[in-house]
Write a structure and sequence with these properties.
Blueprint lengths: L1 E7 L1 E3 L5 E9 L6 E7 L6 E7 L10 E3 L7 E6 L4 E6 L8 E8 L8 E2 L3 E5 L2
Parallel strand pairs: 2-11
Antiparallel strand pairs: 1-3, 3-8, 4-5, 4-9, 5-6, 7-8, 9-10, 9-11
Length: about 120
């Protein structure tokens, strides 16, 4: 079983920045991909982005971003630690929500392990 520990999050004004971090432990040797989902109040959970540590369906180091965050958010990976971070810049009110770290061998929702979530609030 993979355990995910998230940190970061909080409140920021529009245009501000936040950084989220996530570290995988437990059966982390099976982890080949990590990334983030988010869920706004009253909306469905959506993918923010994910990255692969080694070649699978994507090349090693490949990173996918949702169109809504491209150019503003950056996912970085730390292979030695089975960890990823999510640097969020130029935050907008519509980025508000609960952000969840996810990890697995492949990026398929049914097979991912999930973190507890961390709240991000963008408001003036």
């Amino acid at each position: 079983q993979v355990h995910l520990a998230e940190s970061g999050g909080g409140s920021v004004q529009p245009g501000g920045s936040l950084k989220l971090s996530c570290v995988a432990s437990g059966s982390a040797g099976n982890v080949n991909t990590m990334g983030w989902f988010r869920q706004a109040p009253g909306k469905e959970r959506e993918v923010v982005g994910f990255t692969y540590f080694s070649a699978s369906y994507f090349a090693a180091g490949s990173t996918y971003y949702a169109d809504s965050v491209k150019g503003r958010f950056t996912i970085s990976q730390d292979n030695d630690e089975n960890a990823v971070s999510l640097q969020m810049n130029d935050l907008k009110p519509e980025d508000t929500g609960m952000y969840y770290c996810a990890a697995g061998r492949v990026w398929r929702i049914a097979s991912l392990s999930w973190g507890q979530g961390t709240q991000v609030t963008v408001s003036s």
